[in-house]
From TrEMBL:
Pfam families: Virul_fac_BrkB
Location of the protein in the cell: Cell membrane
Classification via PANTHER family: INNER MEMBRANE PROTEIN YHJD, UPF0761 MEMBRANE PROTEIN YIHY
Keywords assigned: Cell membrane, Membrane, Transmembrane, Transmembrane helix
Xref: InterPro entries: Virul_fac_BrkB, WH-like_DNA-bd_sf
Biased composition (Polar residues): 442-451
Keyword hit for Transmembrane helix: yes
Official protein name in the record: Ribonuclease BN
CC per GO annotation: plasma membrane
Superkingdom, taxonomy of origin: Bacteria
TM region(s), chain numbering: 53-75, 115-135, 156-182, 202-223, 235-257, 263-293
Topology class, membrane: Multi-pass membrane protein
Region Disordered, annotated ranges: 441-466
Organism field: Nitrococcus mobilis Nb-231
Amino acid sequence: MTSTTRLKRWFIQQVLNAETTDYPWWKSAGVFVLRLGYAVLRDLSRGQLMLQATSLVYTTLLSLVPLLAVSFSVLKAFGVHNQIEPALNQFLAPLGPKGAEITQRIIEFVENVQVGVLGSLGLALLLYTVVGLMQKIERAFNELWHIRHQRAPAQLFSDYLSVLLVGPVLIFTALGITAAVFGSETVQQLSAVQPLGLAIELITRIVPFLLIIGAFTFIYAFVPNTRVQVSSALVGGMVAGILWQITGWIFAAVIATSSKYTAIYSAFAGLILFMMWLYLSWLILLIGSNIAYYHQHPRYLRWLHREPRLSLRMIEWIGLTVLVLVAERYYRHEPPWSAEQLAARLRLPQQPFDEVLNTLSDCRLLERIESPQAVSYLPAVPLEAIHVREALATLRRHGEHRGLTPERLHAPEAVQQYMTQIEVAPAERFDELSIRDLALSAGTSTEQPSSVALDARKSHRSRNAP
């Protein structure tokens, strides 16, 4: 056995598969950090994050000027539109002199876009381009968070436009106030007094970094179409902020100062460097969102060395168990289960469990209820009308294509008879057993799924006894 194989086996046993409940806090935190780092590196190696970052670069190039034009128009109404150029200069600072040149070009484009003379159709197209960019960003984040459902159109425009109209004002107002405070005469006088001068200089350097972390945290909390915990968004924002600063220093020191790009790309060197920096910025933003997801769903970190896929048997077990748990709370008049609560209750990783929930929702067995707090589930039809055999058959048949059914399969007659008997046998035995029967017979003892099934069978037999 090679040393690499031994190291890999040790990492799987001691890190990925380790039970950290009995560990001291420092050891448990160390295992979590190792799992988190492995998860991010694995996702990067698969290339999906890089592909999404590349797609967002292309969308940004098409939407940057309309986005800044809308922000410029809003900021101009509040008298803080002059803050756009310093903000762009700060964002493009790693590009060196090319950054200042690109900033000047972008500002010229924005000033040439006169929103007032565009007309209703032109303004609508401008807003559509901007909202399209934000929708593209949401789709990338939703994919990282394993969310299939996008925001509803009404919610989409209300949320996005509120951010577009209010967000720039708050951001640039904060930047303006910060610059005014540190540039005031009082602060300048205090800076001459030591050690207050060192403290003020340190705060001056830290505040922009804290504003960047705050911006990343807001994006991670707002953009995904799910409830993101503030702590998880903050962890992702802190990591992304640190990565963004370090990457900016490296980019400015190594890439932007190199003369090779100017020699190779000539007049296009500035555009190439701008696209590279956009790509790295989007990639860092997506990595931070990925970290926020794993921080909020740490159970998924235990399944990193193998892709968690559910067998047909597990889909049936989980689907029936979820229906019974939802029915129990429904009959007790308790708050409905959320997706995260159900996954924690069954001790399952979130991603494959969400697939079962989506299947139950697509089959109209459960109703998906969205709220700002969480996504919860209620029965979609009367529970006494859902028979166990029908629910299992629906789960088993979900996703079948019309042209790929057993009826169209040219199987031997013996196979057809045997498979038909397998499907008919449960129906004959539990013909009238409904989800409501299972829920009521389970009562409050739902810790052991097998006991639930046994109690339900006893209840069914007693009801059918002569």
